[in-house]
Amino acid sequence: MASSKELSVLHLLSRISAGIAGAYCFVFGVTTLGITLGLGLGMSYTDAQTLMYLLAFLIYTTAFCWAFIHRSLLTIWLFLIGGGGVMTALGWWLGNHA
Amino acid sequence: MFNSLRQAMAWLHTWFGLVLGYLLVVIFFFGSLSVFDREIDRWVLPETRFEPQVIPSYGDILEEAFVNLAPDPDELAEARSRVEGELPENLRVLFWGAYTTHRDPTLSIFAEYAIPNNPDDPYDHIHGHATIDPRNGKVLSEDHLNIGSEFFYPLHYSLHLHWKNLGYFIVGFAALMMLVALVSGVVIHRHLFKELFTFRRDKHYQRRVLDLHNLTGVAALPFHFFFALTGLIVFAYIYLPVSETLLAKPAFEYAMQEAEEKGLPFEAAGIPAATASVDEMMAEAKRIWALRDAAGEVGFLLVNHPGDQNSYVSVFRAGTDTVSLVGQGIHFDGHTGELLYEDPVHTAIAGLNEFLIGLHLQHFEHWPLRWLYVFGGLIGCVCIATGFLFFVQKRKRELKSKFGLRSVDAFAVTTITGMLLATVAILVANRLLPADTADKGNWEIAVFCLSWLLSMAHAFWRSAALKIQAVSPAWYEQCYAIAALALSAVLLNWISTGDHLLVTLAEPYWPVASFDLVLMVVSLLSFVIARRLHRKVIVAPVGAQPEERKREEVSRA
Amino acid sequence: MLKLILLVLAMGFSLSGMAWLALTKKAHWYQLSGERSLPHKKPMPYRLLGYAALLISLALCILADNISIAILVWVMSMTLAVICIAFTLSFRPQWLRLFVR
User: Are the Cβ atoms of B215 and C82 closer than 8 angstroms?
Assistant: First the structure.
C-alpha cells in the first residue's frame, strides 16, 4: 500500500502533467475545431486561424491554472485530454469531410 | 490538492517561477539587447558602420545579387538524401526576397529553391540567404557574425536549439509559465493598487526584496503580459501546426483559391519569360502609397517565380511609422509589369494580429519607445531576480543541506553575472580577433559559451565561502570582471577602429556612440556594485547573526 | 523637435499623474508629510488630478505619433512613472512637495 507521501508525489506529478500536456491537448483541440467552425461561419481560413492563435495562449494559461485549482484529478484529465481529443477529432473530421 | 485558490496560485507562482526563472531571465535579457540588435551589429562589424540605406535599384544591384545567391550547402546536402535520383544542377527558384528597415545599412536577401522528386512532399524546398552592401552589391562575409541580430536575438527566441524546433518550444513554454506567473502573482498580491508605489528600503532584507519584486512586476505588468503573449503569437504556427497537419487539406485549398482570386499564380508555368522593370514597379508602388496618404519606403520585396511566365512581384511598404511590420502590399505581373492586385485593408482580426506581432518585433521608428522597451525588459529581469532572491532568503533556514543553498546561489550567480560576463566577453573577443580570421563568428560564439561555463565553475567553487559569510564572493568577483571587460571593450573599439567617443559623438554616429556609452555605464555600475558587496563582506564579522550583520551594514553606510 | 517636446511633456504629465495618485494613499502621504491622516476627507482632488494628468499624457502621445504607437508610448511612460515615483517616495519624498497645494 503506497504511503501518503508517495501518493502525494504521484498526485503532484499527475497534476503537473495534466497542466502541461493536458492543457496543450485541450488547446490543440480548441484550435482545430475553432478553425473549422470559423470556416463554417464564413470566415476566411487565414482569419479563422489567426483568431484561434490569438486566443490559444490565453486558453492554455486558464486551463493550466485550472488543473491546479479543481479538486478532482479525474475530471481534470477527462476534460483536458478527453475534451481536447474529442475536439481535435471533430475538427479534423469537419475540416476534411464536411 | 490545495485548500484555496490563493494557496494554489502561490504554489504555482513559487515553483514554476523558480524553475523557469533562470530561463526567463536569459530570455528577457537577450530580448532587451535585441531591441538594439542592429546597432550592436554596427559595433561588432566596423565595415558596416554607415548610414541606413533604402532598398537599392533592382536593375543595378539586386538582380545580380539574387542571381549569385546559392542554396545553403547544408540544406542542399540534406535534401539529396530525401529525394529519389539526382538533383538538377540549377534548382528552380521559387522566389527571391529582400527585407530592410529604417535601421539597416546592410540588406538581407534570401531565396527559396524547389526540390523536385521528393516522394513525401511535392512542395519540398530549401533556402539561401546572404547579406549585401546595398550601395554596391558586395556580398558580406558569412564568417562575420552579426552578434546582435544573428546571435543575441535568435538566442532570445530559440536558444539556438534548432533540432526539431526544440529551442522554440522551450522558450514558448517559458513564456506560458511567465503568463501563469503574472496571473498567479496578481491573485496572491493582496494589495495590488494600495502598494503600487511601495518600496520600503528601511525594512529588513526579505521585505525590501519582496517590495522590489512586486513593484517591478506590477508597474510593468502590461509590458510583461503583452510581451509574453505576443511572443507566443509570433510563433503560434510552430506551437500549433494545425494547418500543416490535421487541416492541411482545407488550408491548401484556401491558398489555391486565394491565389486565383488575386490573380497571383501559385505555381510556375514552366515557360521562361523576361522580367519587366522591377524598379518601375517599386516606383509605382511608392506613388500609389503616396496617393493613399501613406507615403513610404519599400520594406519588403518578393519576386515570385522569377524568369517564368507566371512570375509576379510583390512590393510591401515598410511600417516605419506604425506598429505593424509591413503592409499595403502591391502585386505586379513580373513579365508585363502591369498592376495585378492591391492588398485590401486588413480585416479586424488580421489588423489586430499585425498590431500584436508588430508590438513585439518593433520595426517602427521611435527611439524613445525603444529605450522604454529596454527599460521594461530590464525591469523584468529585476522582477525575476528579486523573486528568486526572495525565495532563497525565505528558505535559507529550511534548505536542509548546505549544498542545497550553495548550488541555488551558484546557479543564481551563473544566470545573472555569468550571463553578463559572457555578453561582454564576446564583444571583447570580437575586437581582439583579426577581421580576416577564418570562422571568426564561431570563435566568438566559443568564447561566449566558455566564459559562461567558466563563470559557473567559479560560482560553484567560491560558494564554499557561504559557510562563513552571507554573500558568496563569486558575486562581486564576477562584477569586477564585468566592469573590467566592459571597459576593455570600449578601449578595444577605439584601438581597433579609431571610432572612439569623441569621433562618434561628433559625427554623430549614434549606434556606436550609444553602445560605447552603455558599456561605460555598465562598467561603472558593475564596479560600484562589486565594491559595495565586497565592503559588506569585509565588515561583517565571521559567524555573526544576520540581524547583527545588518546593523553593522547600516552603521557603515 | 515638436514631437520631442510633446513626448517630454507627456512624460511629465505621466509622472505628475502618478505622483498625485500616490499621494492619495495614507502610507505615501505619511512619507511626505509625517501626517498620519490624509489632508482631505476623501482624497478626491488628488485622485481627479492624477487621472486627469494621465489622460492629458495620453492626448499628448496621440498628438506626437500614430495612435497605435501612441498607446504603447503612453503605457510605457506610466510604467516608468510608477517606478520613478516609488523610488522618489523611498529616497527623497520631499521632492514630491511640489505636487501638494
Answer: yes
